[in-house]
Amino acid sequence: MLNRSTFRSVSMALILALLGMPAINSAGAQDQPRPPQPKQPQQQQSDPSDKKGAQRQVPDADGPGTLGEDRIKIDTDLVNLDVAVIDQENNPVSNLKKEDFAVYEDKIKQTVESVFREEVPISFGIVIDTSGSMGSKIETVSDAALLLIKQMRHGDEAFVASFKTEPDLAQDFTTDRRELENAVGELYTGGGTALLDAIIATADYAHEKGKRRRKALVVVSDGLDRNSAFKEKEVIDAIKEDEVQVYLVGFIDEVMEEKNLSGKTAAKKAKDLLIRIADDSGGRAYFPKDIGEIPAIAAQISKDLRTQYVVS
After folding, report:
1. Which of 75, 100, 134 is the last residue of a domain?
2. Domain of 32?
3. Quick one: three-class SS letters along 50-96?
């Protein structure tokens, strides 16, 4: 009896043990540790492919940044301005320092980083008035143009244009002096005068085709504009936008005494126009009274074009 009871007890315990194993295994499977799910987003935030996270981890040049602090970086361009400085007697002024210059944009003073003088190759155009009113002066004007061509230095490039009622390109940009001289030799006079139209057209051409940083026009005219479609303000705006300096050689006939409604003579009106255009562009205006002044004027223009202050 004892053996049977013992057997039954052992059997019953074994059966209960076998019946309880799936429950234990199942509970064990549920209780097994899983990968820490909450940590996965933290790993994604520190992923180098996250551009914002990568930027915050890179030390700033000025020192370590503060987490969560916004930083703004603005790219700015250094602008170089070519400046010619003259005194009251129209003579160049040298040996100026950074403290002697002030630059304003939209009436806001700008920071001047540096000021220095440099001599660089230039791109310039020789623009000659060949209207009917220049008939008696064309030989003198051509001589002035040839002197400018002779003043060219290594690396310079130039073009020749003429104008009557419309501008005409006689020789495009070249470094060959002979080609330029031949173009000047083929000029002839006749027709009306559209000075302002010619300045805009040649300034645009110099800006678009000139290969040198410093660009200029040397315009030779008597200043008598009767046929231009553009107005003076439009010319000033165009040459400033094109960043082209304009040097004007005015062969003004002082005997033109006919006065306009403002009381100015035609000669005075023409001279004032040339001066305003030259001044507003950063160039200069010359009014020779004798052909003997031409070599000195050509040399001065050449010097002014090459040696100027660069204000950065």
Report:
1. 75
2. 1-75
3. CHHHHHHHCCECCECCCCCCCCCCCCCCCCCEEECCECCCCCECCCC
